[in-house]
Amino acid sequence: MKHKKAFTLVELMVTIIITAGIAGTIYHFISHAQYVAALTAAKAKAKQNAELVMRFLERDIVSSRAIIDRKGPEPKMVKTLAISGSNLELDVAKESDLSNNNNSISYFGSNKDGNAENYRKVKYTLEGKKLIRTDQLGPTKTLSKNVDTFEIEENYDGRVLIKIKTVFKVRGTKASAPYTLRNIVTVREAQKTLINKHWKRNFSTDPNDCDY
Question: Which pTM value belongs to this model?
Fold first, then answer.
């Protein structure tokens, strides 16, 4: 009578270990691929969101009221932005517009010495991570729910420095993807009045702050 050959306990254990190792390697590669995809999506959302906020800010600041002091030997701009922490209030020309169809920015008109009746109040308020834009003549909009940093500084001769940092969570992980955007914007009305070699708009991102 012949005996059938069977697997020994050692052989079964070796087979299980090898199978588990192969399965673990495959799982690691799949998980890494999913993480990279989720990280890329979070980066794109953070960038898109920061650029959207910047477009609104740029449009409003460029079209904002400029009051020129002509008493001295050279005209000087009086600061007209009300900046309090991460909140901003400004007077914006009533005829400025942002197209909803293609997100392009259009600038219209200019008012001599910033006559108050030609403007409406616009406010930017940061509540936690939510940035809200309130328009005296338009709807209130939540521009972002993922703002980590919102800094505004009015520099000399109507130049305004802006820094925005948005942060999005990477889906399925505890990681996050930040994106920082900086901009220097000038008030258009002051630009027309003040002849200065520094008058130009500069747009840039800071790669050192985008530490994904």
Answer: 0.68
